[in-house]
Amino acid sequence: MNTQQRHSWGLAFGLCLITLAVNLQAPLYTTYAQLSGYGAAATAVAFSGYVLGVLPVLLAFGGLADRVGRKPLILAALGLSMLATVVTMLWPNLIALGVARLLMGVGTGLASATSTAYMMELMPTCDARSPANRVTASTSLGFGLGAALTSLFLLALPSVTPGSFWLQLMLAALALVVVWRLPDPAERIKHAPLLRLPVFPSGSLPYSFSMLLAWATSGLVIAILPSVLAAHDLQQWSGLSTFTVISCGLVFQPWVRRMHPARATGLGLLVLPLSYALLAWGASEGSLPAVLLGALGASSACYGFLYLGGLSAITAMAGAQKARVTAGFFLFAYVGFSIPVVVTGLLADHFGADVALIVFGLALLAGASITGLLIVRTAAFIAQPSHG
């Protein structure tokens, strides 16, 4: 392995450990809520602390890496991931979870603002997709792996501070050393603008809204599903469902890359409501195979068809404003990761989990149908020959 490859894998290791901490506590959400005396809505609010951390950093400090360099932001993100884990180890309750999610949101925002650019500088190549694919793979694996590890430790020994927390701290400390030794070749620009407001090119909104639907579904699986599974004594498996709904989407990405963006997004909007229906039915009936199969289908849509298809489409529309257009795309995604999840939690507290899951499913079906129709019409209009 040459030096460039070694450096790129070192950065990928650091990025994986940053995102591994994000959903590390997911299988314990219901336990934290019970210990704190709160319900599904409060759990969803604590879960959304992540978005409150990540969005301001992405928007208000998007140009920070140009001023201070790439490596300091990755090191800061690793430190915040460790601090967030320590907070929930010392105070295993819902308020501490909200604080930890906020810290992890800030850390992920710092890493997201520079990770792809840093990877491209460490592994120079004619094909810009290779660095981006390595960043996507390492972060997607981390997002799901943390929850899966906690589930495995809980199956072996129930605890509010499982061994996965200690494992994350040890691996993140190792990642700090690895990233510290990486070069940082980017030129510093002292007066680079920090603020990068989002831009939405004509025709991009349906693709952005499809990401809102996708991440709302994955957020529901992470934040609300554990309490539904707990009613059937399946809470310890919620980490596996989180891993499935996030990380298994990687399997579908090579296929999606060969598809036209509009076709990929349209297929994702078809798969998502069907997969959610199976997942919600399995959770209500206590059928773990149905939950995992539905989560796998949702993952193919959320982190395969809709993510790559939508990102490819809006990037093609962006022109010279790629960074700001991408910020707008993820703004929709993070709104979906918070507001619909909180609303569903409120419905679950007042009307029961089954009603909340049905209402979310109907809204998802309506949103996917309308968005899919808009994408099909936009694609058909663009494909028409000009008669100017």
Describe the fold and architecture.
The structure is a single chain. With 388 residues, the chain is an all-alpha fold. The chain has two domains: 1-194, MFS general substrate transporter like domains (Growth Hormone, Chain: A, Up-down Bundle), CATH 1.20.1250; 197-388, MFS general substrate transporter like domains (Growth Hormone, Chain: A, Up-down Bundle), CATH 1.20.1250.20. It is built from 19 helices and no strands. The protein has helices spanning 3-20, 29-36, 40-47, 49-60, 64-68, 71-90, 94-112, 115-122, 129-156, 163-180, 205-223, 225-230, 238-247, 253-256, 261-285, 288-318, 322-336, 339-351, 353-383. GO terms for molecular function: transmembrane transporter activity. InterPro entries: MFS, MFS_dom, MFS_trans_sf. Keywords: Membrane, Transmembrane, Transmembrane helix. The chain crosses the membrane at residues 7-26, 38-61, 73-92, 98-120, 141-159, 165-183, 204-228, 234-252, 264-284, 290-313, 325-343, 355-376.
Largest sheet: none
CATH class wording of the largest domain? Mainly Alpha
CATH fold naming of the largest domain: Growth Hormone, Chain: A
Second-tier CATH architecture of the largest domain: Up-down Bundle
GO molecular function: transmembrane transporter activity
GO cellular component, one term: plasma membrane
Keywords: Membrane, Transmembrane, Transmembrane helix
Pfam families: MFS_1
